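pasting for ref
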Amino acid sequence: MTVAFTPSAPLVVYRNEIVLGFQRRQKLLYNSVLTQFQAKGHQAVFEVADTGNDYAVTRGANGFVPSSTFTQAQYTATMQMQFAKDVRNKEDILGSQGDIERVMTEAAIGKINRSIDKVILDQLDAGSQTAWSSDPLTSISTDTFAALLAKLTAAKIPMDGNITAVIQPSVFAQLYKLPNFANELYVGKTPTPELDLKWKDEPRTYRWMGINFIVMPGLTGAGTSSETNYIYHKNAIGLAADLSGQGTPTVDAGYDQQNSYYFVNANFYMGAKVIQDTGIYKFYTDGTSLVNVPA
């Protein structure tokens, strides 16, 4: 006779793989600014030189060739070490069915990467030029970015492929509806490329009208009637950092046997500075109008 076994308590099965919470772990703005290697010192100096868009000259009446104007300016970025440290004792590690050490490492690197973006955003916020600040845009069209490009071009900013627009998700939602933004004849990477629909936590840059578009959550005023967006040239912001790791944070990890705890300490030495204010525009949008989601 076969006897069926009936457990007296429900069977609990734990998933070994930890599900990572929703948060941004990758740096998005690092390649959009001018980077400078500096492994030592607390200050990095960027020198900007120009001739004021002067022209060649003819020989003067006295027979001498006039000397042209030449300006130089130095901008100092103060560097600081950024740390992301996490410590868990052995009981914490053993008490979880998942790989807590890997989670600690990814969390530390994510903190550093978000800090890199914040350092750059703080400098973009320091830019003095604004568009639609008193009357934020309630719709986005091709004309929006044509106007911004015209402002940059008027300031002699080169259209050399190094223009970046850091935009709110609401602005991207409007761009998504423009036929030429979603058409591969006009844009390098379409919003919905075939065979690439899986979500990835990596920089997603869309190139359109000669501008590199980066959709970034958490920008100032997100979802409000006055959202801040940015458009700028790469040479407008200088980022000095210890680039020995090719822009990757240094991660120290280990186990303290005496006190039985695991530690992870990611760090990155960096500082940023506006070096050409004319190459930065902040433009404002009304996110409540751009994305009208009913309650």
